Amino acid sequence: MKTVKKQPSRMCIACREMKPKAELTRVVRTPEGEIFVDESGKAAGRGAYVCNQKECLQKINAKKLLHKSFSTDVKKEVYERIEEDAFGNE
Ligand SMILES: [Zn+2]
């Protein structure tokens, strides 16, 4: 018999809705100041979450929300990587 694990929820930085972690892309800032898309979801550091909705991805791009979240410059590649992670290579 399988026990249903309770999914931890996190807040999307764009729409500010709580979503199960599976629907979010985690971006992490390591203590060394590196910022990248954390596919394992286990990297150490401060995390920011974006849900897999086109509007949210557009919003973080347009308003540089990652920038704000981490209070530092976030490379364009990171934003692009999030989009890839959410939608694959279309
Ligand atoms: Zn969202």
N→C terminal distance: 39 Å
Hetero groups in this structure are: zinc ion
* Total count of helical runs of at least 4 residues: 3
Our count of domains comes out at 1
Low-confidence stretches: none
Overall form: globular
Task: Fill in the CATH topology.
Answer: Hypothetical Cytosolic Protein, Chain: A
| Cα radius of gyration in angstroms | 13 Å
Could you walk me through the main structural features you see in this protein, from its secondary elements to its overall organization?
The chain starts with 8 loop residues before the first strand and ends with a helix. It has a single domain, classed as Hypothetical Cytosolic Protein, Chain: A (2-Layer Sandwich). It has 3 helices and 5 strands; from the N terminus they run E-E-E-E-E-H-H-H. Helices cover 31% and strands 23% of the residues. It has a 3-stranded antiparallel β-sheet. With 90 residues, the chain is α+β, with helices and mostly antiparallel strands. It is globular and about 45 Å long. Bound molecules: zinc ion. The site of zinc ion (ZN) has 7 residues, from loops. The site of zinc ion has 7 residues, from loops.
